[in-house]
Amino acid sequence: MKSIDVCLTPDLLHLHTIDNTIVVVTDIFRATSCMVTGLAYGVGSITPVATVEECFELQQKGYIAAAERNAMKVEGFDLDNSPFSYMDEDLVGANIAMTTTNGTLSITKAKTSAVKVLVGAFLNLGAIVNHLKSQPYDVLVLCAGWKGRVNLEDTLFAGALVDALKDEYIIGEDSALMAMRAYQQAQNDLLGYVANSSHVRRLQRLGIHKDIAYCLQRDLYDVVPVLRGSTLVNM
């Protein structure tokens, strides 16, 4: 039977064998929520890169470039890391290059040996669940965390995915069980559950309140971002 597991931070990814595995990368606040939103609103593609320098090189080649570090837009780039910035009609069909503190780094780490890399958020939870039910591979949810540390919102998404698939997959290690139980406690009030979390406090200091509530909404979009080569497109 297929198994599902959770890697709570990309710094632990080396402990997992993923060559027969679909990796679902999640960075709820806010990279993967931006990716899902952008593709739902008609963005043509998103190329995630690990470094600001790589993003700048793609900007020079004509990409619309989004760069974030420490939850703030990097000077000289076109887009920040708010999902609301990806709802612009001018971005329909556009090719976007993106680098973020945690999310894009996690994608670049996963793509080296995974069968497939998907991008997950609460915004497309149901679409990810439905796709995975049809797949023959194991699943690993890779939480982007914050600079190598575990964070609550990504863990809750991982738990939501494990909870939704627990009848289809064997639950792997304790990290998956912990994430699922945390989600089961939090599911009726996600916003309240994460209210004192480190990343929420970080975003609130920057005045980014509406992004927090938006990113915790479930099943707004029926999109499954998948990495094709080095580029994310809607499946």
Give an overview in words:
- This protein has one domain: putative 2-phosphosulfolactate phosphatase, CATH 3.90.1560.
- With 235 residues, it is an alpha/beta fold.
- It is globular and about 45 Å long.
- α4 packs across α5 and α5 crosses α6.
- The chain has 9 helices and 11 strands.
- A hairpin with a 2-residue loop joins β10 and β11.
- The model has no long low-confidence stretch (mean pLDDT 95).
- The strands form 3 sheets. It has a 5-stranded parallel sheet, with helices on both faces.
- The longest helix is centred in the last third of the chain and has 14 residues.
Describe the strand arrangement of the main beta sheet, using strand numbers.
7-2-8-1-9
Number of helices: 9
Helix content: 25-40%
Q: So, CATH architecture? A: Alpha-Beta Complex
| Strands, count | 11
Radius of gyration: 16 Å
Average pLDDT, to the nearest integer?
95
First-last Cα distance: 25 Å
Describe the main β-sheet briefly: 5 strands, parallel
CATH superfamily, by name, is ComB-like
Organism: Runella defluvii
Enzyme class: hydrolase
Pfam families: 2-ph_phosp
Protein name: Probable 2-phosphosulfolactate phosphatase
